[in-house]
Amino acid sequence: MRRVILEPGEVFSNKHLKRTGAFNAAALTAATAIIEDVRERGDGALRDYTERFDGVRLEDFRVPQLAVDEAAAYVDDGTARALRQAASQIRDFHERQRQQSWFTVREDGALVGSKVEPLESVGIYVPGGRALYPSTVLMNALPAAVAGVPRIVCVTPPAKSGMLDPAILYACRLAGVTEIYAVGGAQAVAALAYGTESIEPVAKITGPGNAYVAAAKKVVSGDVGIDMIAGPSEVCVVADATADPALVAIDLMAQAEHDPLAACYLVTFDEAYADEVERAVERHLESSTRAEITAASLADQGLVVVCRDIPQALEAVNVIAPEHLELHLDHAFDLLGAIRNAGAIFLGAWTPEAVGDYVAGPNHTLPTGGTARYASPLSVDEFVKKSSVIQYSPAALARDADAVTTIARHEGLWAHAMSVEMRRNLLRTGNVFGEEGGPAGAASGAGAVGSGGADA
Length: 456
Description:
It is built from 16 helices and 14 strands. The protein is of the alpha/beta class.
């Protein structure tokens, strides 16, 4: 792992980081071409890309309901129990995020409020490739179900047999997914965004994926909603001499084993302690089933930051703005207020990041690549939309008329001002054109405008 040794008073900055972003130019170019092809050729393009990238040619992409119902029989009891426990705790956490419509009425009779509605449809992308992720199904579909989304579509790459992992199908059933399609990559994102002969488009796409999936989400964003553009996984562990080096090492490796591009940061206070952690990593690698990926990640993307004190360390964390932050420090909760930028914060030695990945309840779809500076974890809010509601009474219009017309005229918007001025005239004189009158019949024709209101 690369090292940065900070001097007293030195500020850690972005120049110390070597981030490459969620995707590269080649991925963006390739994803754009795939999307245009899917828009033009629909299912035919999906079949060609699935055969090319996944090694299987499918005639039908939709997984039949019978296969979903039967999947539980092919999931071992321990995995099924764990998924049910995870689903229960994830649902409970996200139920607490639900928002309701609200309305308030001012003394002058004006009603204002916010109407909350679930999205009509969402598509969740579940990655394949190096690992299988039933947990991603739960983390994306359950918030949508809690929000009340009636159509939840899952897309995920098929195996070379054309089948999907039974645990993914079982997780879909637990989470309330209504449609499942065996298609992945940028082509799946295109199908969700624009539709094909067999896949109806959705209103929003969520879920992580590789660089091509991230690039595809960027391309379709604006035509369809997206949650975020997720880059490689990240963890930042802040540890002092009281932390067990073996536990710190395994927590770094828990992110490194995802991907050679996964970024792992160790923020500590002593070079000798950092040496101990790296030696512990070497020992763990001897038993790892993903040693090659893990070692590549730590060698190429790993960074040790040696700080002089806690304030300097926490400021380094805020610059890194990690996806996952672990505080292996005594009284970690007392430091929470100093953390401004992190996707998820794990407090104390008994809270490995893995509990957040699977069963704790908070969402594991988190901002990466420093975007925790402004972005938040996936939540129920991603699956609802809000409409402002406004209903004025005659008294409310009279009260606000001067302010509205003054601002409108300052901005040079004549009709804006007149739409209020004419109503005020109607209130004052019974004629929308004021005391000097207007076209014959104007007053009687407009009289109905003033008859409604928040009290009607």
